[in-house]
Write a structure and sequence with these properties.
Elements: H1 2-33, H2 35-58, H3 65-85, H4 91-112, H5 122-125, H6 138-152, H7 161-174, H8 176-179, E1 191-192, H9 196-201, E2 206-209, E3 214-217, H10 226-237, H11 243-255, H12 260-275, H13 281-287, H14 293-309, H15 312-328, H16 341-352
Parallel strand pairs: 1-3
Antiparallel strand pairs: 2-3
Helix pairs in contact: 1-4, 6-12, 7-10, 10-11, 11-12, 11-16
């Protein structure tokens, strides 16, 4: 009788990870259909508590816990696989434990951050009511952005990084009420990726590690990129999951600052998405003539910098993986979602300044 009880207990324990993953899957599907529930009960209630707890723990470590964690996971899987090859562990046990680990990671990802993918879109949160085709506002907004970039151009130095971090925090604090995220929502001390060289070859400038609520930046970032990328990753920490929304928040947070280092970085990073817009190629060529030559040189320096670091195979593999990851989380555009920041910017100008043809040049 005792043996049967232990066997039942062991069987139930083996099933627990799959039950957790199954429940998570049901909640994901339900949340995707009811974003207002995610917004109210997760993004604005549970997640701020989780973010505060996890970021409070991770800030005690100067290195990336996220990078260390995944290194250990990979090494563990390789070690156990080696045990299977040398017949120290049965292959059935190996497959069971691997699936259990995957199920637990899946459930934990959504608990600690992932449900934010299904919250209400920023247009709904900001009560935007006006929506237009890009062609109606594109030239006006592009002209305003170029004027802002030309007016704010300034040299940015690595020694400026601590001050830039503080200014971005200040801007996030001042805009919390407007955009509906919780501040302080824990802490956001940016960490340099442990595998900077690998991610540089893959074209990754930054990422957010949800398991430990960590903001990561690539050590190869150029100073002109630093404010925008830092603000983008901090947006993810505030529960803004979509890449277009994180790009928009990075631009707005930096552009609303009075500091030209933030404003300039925001302007030239956003402009690159506008310049890449396939529907306005001819119009853009005319606007480029108005662009400050030194600002254009900064953009070209960024492109040449990353081109020199890029490994085509790793870049394509990372893009494919990221595309699949985003689509799995209901971002149907995949990696093209980054470029949707153009649409969000146009709609922001339209809804904030509906009676005028142009927005502010702050």
């Amino acid at each position: 009788m005792m043996f049967k009880a232990k066997k039942v207990h062991r069987s139930f324990a083996n099933l627990l990870p799959f039950l957790a993953a199954g429940l998570t899957f049901l909640l994901v599907e339900l949340g995707a259909d009811h974003p207002e529930w995610i917004e109210k009960y997760y993004s604005n209630a549970l997640y701020p508590v989780i973010a505060t707890l996890f970021s409070g723990i991770s800030e005690f470590f100067s290195f990336s816990l996220w990078d260390i964690f995944w290194t250990l996971v990979v090494l563990l899987v390789l070690y156990v696989l080696g045990m299977v090859i040398f017949r120290k562990i049965k292959i059935g046990i190996f497959l069971l434990r691997t699936l259990q680990l995957a199920a637990l990671l899946y459930a934990f990802f959504y608990l600690c951050w992932g449900y934010n993918y299904f919250r209400q879109p920023i247009e709904k949160r900001l009560n935007w009511t006006r929506h237009i085709e890009k062609k109606d506002m594109f030239p006006t907004v592009l002209d305003s952005l170029i004027s802002n970039a030309n007016a704010s151009r300034v040299e940015i130095k690595i020694s400026d990084y601590p001050a830039i971090d503080s200014l971005i925090e200040q801007s996030y604090r001042e805009n919390a009420g407007r955009f509906g995220y919780h501040y302080p929502n824990g802490s956001r001390h940016a960490k340099t990726m442990i595998y900077t060289w690998f991610f540089a070859k893959s074209g990754v400038s930054g990422y957010f590690g949800p398991f430990f609520n960590e903001v990561h930046l690539n050590g190869e970032l150029l100073p002109t990129e630093y404010p925008f990328v830092l603000a983008h990753e901090k947006a993810h920490q505030f529960g803004i999951s979509g890449e277009a929304e994180a790009n928009f928040m990075a631009w707005y947070i930096c552009n609303s600052s009075k500091d030209n280092r933030l404003k300039y970085s925001a302007s030239i990073q956003l402009l690159q998405y506008f310049f890449a817009d396939p529907f306005h190629h001819e119009a853009i060529r005319e606007f480029l003539k108005r662009f400050d030559k030194k600002a254009m040189a900064d953009i070209m320096a960024q492109r040449n910098h990353w081109k020199a670091l890029r490994n085509e195979t790793l870049d394509k593999a990372q893009t494919t993986a990221n595309n699949a990851y985003l689509k799995t989380n209901k971002i149907h555009e995949g990696v093209m979602n980054y470029n949707s920041v153009v649409r969000l910017t146009l709609e922001w100008y339209l809804n904030e300044y509906p009676m005028t043809d142009a927005g502010p040049s702050k």
